[in-house]
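Revision sheet: structure tokens.
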Amino acid sequence: MSMDAPIALARLIAELKAVAGRKRLQKIVHLLRASGSPDFRYRFILHYFGPYSRGLASDLDFLCAASIVKEVRFGDGSYRYSIDGKKGQKRIHDLTGGTAPEMKWAPLAKELNEEAILLLEALSTIRFLADRGHEGDELRDEFATAKPHLADLFEKALKRGVKLELLSG
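Predicted:
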């Protein structure tokens, strides 16, 4: 296993301080990858909750098992991810040799982490479909088929994606 992807994932979580849920983390990474970040080379499929990467899920499990990332599960079944204290920070430092490339994606990641989860799911799904050649009315129709429960968020997510330069107008 190459350590580049898990290290980038750990650095993302460290930069965000905390991420509320696996779904949110999946969508943020998908959109960072779609924006051109070379740090996140995960492959995504369209899943019930939007774009999903098995590789990302596996790397997150690895980081938790290695005590780099702390996973807290709440009574309602939700999760929260953060770096596992000074020990986790030291492990990231050791894995990067104390040097790490600039995180050009950090400002976008912070904005995405603040989005409502359903809007984030809608935005990520729209980008996934757009990357597969869907546009205009066809994109709207494909989105409505894939995400009928989010159809009312299509326009808002599309506008947000354009504003964040994740989608073309």
